[in-house]
Amino acid sequence: MIFFYYFCTRMKRIITFGEIMLRLSTQTGCRFSQNNRLDVCYGGGEANVAVSLANYGHEVAFVTKLPKNEIGQAAVNALRQYGVDIRHIVRGGERVGIYFLESGSAMRPSKVVYDRAHSAIAEADPDDFNFDEIMTGADWFHWTGITPAISDKAARLVEKACEAAQRHGLTISCDLNFRKKLWTSEKAQSVMRPLMHYVDVCIGNEEDAALSLGFRPEGVDVTTGKTDSSAYRKIFSQMAREFGFKTVATTLRESFSASHNGWKALIYDGSDFYESRRYDITPIIDRVGGGDAFAAGLIHGLLTKPTQGEALEFAVAASALKHTIAGDFNQVTADEVEALVAGDGSGRVQR
Q1: I want to staple 30 with a disulfide (CB 3.0 to 4.6 A). Which of 35, 57, 71, 286 is the partner?
Q2: Residues 157, 127: Cα–Cα separation, whole Å
């Protein structure tokens, strides 16, 4: 089976590359217009993945560029406290990207406002990073579709990172993560489709696949819970044939409200197709970072589990738990995820 291309030893060295941002979020139940105080934390797709994988015991390096000021240092410190390797973070540039989050509830959706134009990583140059040195001795490289969306310069950096990762024999994963506030579908496809030829493990939901790559499952409507797995198997097979993916995985989110989601996932390795257990998540504390928690869980699972089904179950459980935790980072251990996989979702007090 193709799956065994990944599974060999327990812990690996993993590189993630992208932007870590300052997150400013409203108090629970408050809108931007009525809030006079914002909660502060740090996060961003690849940074969130790095923290999760470090929590699972892997050696993880996060690569980015941050300004040499107190806010940039606070972002570095946010990663360092979880044991993420920050040696390859370049210091320079003018600003840290910011995003503002208004958390939704019940039928009111969450809203994100970006203030990330001209951030340090968006303006970074290829000479800022020695990707061959960064990839030496590593096993896995992960990036998301958010990074090439932030600027043309960042897209070029992703390409150079993928080229180096491929030269050094790393497994390359990508979470498609389409963000309509950053670019159009036409722009996304013009950038993302060529980059997909470097990718071994493709992760995304139905919207990501449609808007970033042009693949849309037929007869799927997540708002009504209509998620026919056979439609996904068909497009997974098409994507694998076109781009050479060894593994394709998707999350399936049933959005009943901002506070109540159904959550499961699918995976395909070119031969076998597997559908995970479904979780009913209510009430949701913070869904931001849920997809990143899934990506990190899948990477960990593919590196440590004997079957792709077990890898997927770990990923889905990890991301379900993230929905119960405030902030971008998934603050759980592998043991806590394994307990949920084993069926302990009671939430009983542990004494």
Answers
A1: 35
A2: 10
pLDDT the model gives residue 28: 85
Distance in Å from the first CA to the final CA of the chain: 43
User: What token pair was written down for 222?
Assistant: 């997540």
- Between the CA atoms of 178, 228, 318 and 100, what dihedral angle is there, to the nearest 10 degrees? 30
Distance of CA 328 to the CA centre of its chain: 11
Structure tokens at 313: 């179950």
pLDDT along the chain (351 residues), means of 10: 53 95 93 92 97 98 98 98 97 97 93 95 97 98 98 98 98 96 96 98 93 82 62 90 96 93 95 95 94 98 97 98 96 97 82 66
| Residue 53, both tokens | 């994988």
Q: What is the 3-state secondary structure (H, E, C) of 334-350?
A: HHHHHHHHCCCCCCCCC
Distance, CA of 279 to CA of 282 (rounded, Å): 9
CA 243/CA 196 separation, integer angstroms? 6
Q: Which residue in this structure is represented by tokens 């970074």?
A: 124
